[in-house]
Amino acid sequence: MANHSQFSFQDASSPIMEELLQFHDHALMVALAICSLVLYLLTLMLTEKLSSSTVDAQAVELVWTILPAVVLVTLALPSLRILYMMDEVNEPDLTLKAIGHQWYWSYEYTDFKDLTFDSYMVPTSDLPLGHFRLLEVDHRVIVPTDSTVRVIVTADDVLHSWAVPSLGVKTDAIPGRLNQTSFLASRPGVYYGQCSEICGANHSFMPIVVESTPLANFENWSSLLSS
C-alpha cells in the first residue's frame, strides 16, 4: 500500500499493473527526451547570434512534422495494447460481484451457493492495534492467488467506483448497469483500495480490502462461509 512521502506508484501485484507501470516509465522517458530537446533548442537560440537571412528549411519542416507523429505512435501502440488486455476476460476461475451502497460494499461469490456478505469500514474506536485507520474492513474479499478473478461491478443507489491500485483495477459502479473487470493476484498479500467516485458525505469511509491466499486456504474459507 502507499506510504508517506511516496513519489511513485504502489508495488505491482498483478500482471496488468506491471504493464501499466512499464508504460508509465516508457511515457516518462519520451517526455524527458522531448523536454531535453526543447531545452537544448531554447539554449541554442539564446546563446547563438541571430541571423536575419532567409534559409530554405524544407528538411527542418519535414523533421518537425514527422517526428511528433512518430512520438505519438510510440505512445499509442503500447497504450492500446494494455487497454485491450485490461478489457479482455478469458475463462475466469472465479466470479465476484461487487455492489456499491451508501456507504459500504456488498459482495457475492456467484460460483458458490449463498456466499454473500457486506463489507463495512472498521471504526477507529474498534480498530485492532497495527491495522490501518480508514482502510480496514470487517469482512475482506478473499481470492485465490494466481487465479483470474472476474469482478462484476454495479451500484444500488449512486455512482461509486471499485478501485484497488496495486492490482491495477478501477471500475465505475453505476446503478442499473453491470461493468466488468478482472485481475490476477500474482502473490499472496492484502491489498487496499477505496471508492474512487465522490458518492456523498461518507465517500471517504467505504474502503476495499482484497486478501489473496493460496487455493487451499481459499477453499477452506469458502466452505466455512457457505456451510
From TrEMBL:
Its cofactor is Cu cation. Belongs to the cytochrome c oxidase subunit 2 family. It is found in: Mitochondrion inner membrane. It is a multi-pass membrane protein. Keywords: Copper, Electron transport, Magnesium, Membrane, Metal-binding, Mitochondrion, Mitochondrion inner membrane, Respiratory chain, Translocase, Transmembrane, Transmembrane helix, Transport. Its main location: mitochondrion. Component of the cytochrome c oxidase, the last enzyme in the mitochondrial electron transport chain which drives oxidative phosphorylation. The respiratory chain contains 3 multisubunit complexes succinate dehydrogenase (complex II, CII), ubiquinol-cytochrome c oxidoreductase (cytochrome b-c1 complex, complex III, CIII) and cytochrome c oxidase (complex IV, CIV), that cooperate to transfer electrons derived from NADH and succinate to molecular oxygen, creating an electrochemical gradient over the inner membrane that drives transmembrane transport and the ATP synthase. The gene is COX2. This is Cytochrome c oxidase subunit 2. It holds the Pfam family COX2. GO terms for molecular function: copper ion binding; cytochrome-c oxidase activity; oxidoreductase activity. It catalyses: 4 Fe(II)-[cytochrome c] + O2 + 8 H(+)(in) = 4 Fe(III)-[cytochrome c] + 2 H2O + 4 H(+)(out). GO terms for cellular component: mitochondrial inner membrane. GO terms for biological process: ATP synthesis coupled electron transport. The lineage of its organism: Eukaryota, Metazoa, Chordata, Craniata, Vertebrata. Binds a copper A center. The chain crosses the membrane at residues 27-46, 66-84. Residues 1-90 form the Cytochrome oxidase subunit II transmembrane region profile domain. Residues 91-224 form the Cytochrome oxidase subunit II copper A binding domain.
